[in-house]
Request: fold
Amino acid sequence: MRKFILAATLASIAFSASAQNASSPIGKWKTLDDETGKAMTITEVYEAKNGTLAAKITENLGLPATCSECSAPYTGKPFVGIVTLSNLKANKDGSWSGSGYKPSDDRKFNAKSVKLIDGGNKLEVKGCVAFICKTATWVRAH
Reply:
């Protein structure tokens, strides 16, 4: 009987851990070019030291080696390591909001809504500059 209870407890812990992953954007994501849909980077969403979420490029799949058009502090540096989302805080609707940076356009934006869609397999990133907003969809990298 003890083995059965132990097995059931371990199974429920494993199930709850996998369910949490589906409701959290933490992990690696494939970012896609807005126009062509071609994979550009692998970007990792992680918990920052201050408890908010952030994202940085961990692999370059389709960008030049260095960011010649980026402003300081990224001018002429590799795309890998650039922080693209920062200070993301949870909203009541299950999304996150904070700050963003799109190095391919050298543009800072307000990350108005970052939310999981398609059962946690996609991340919808809505960014706004003034009143103009665009939405990008990232695909979970397995």
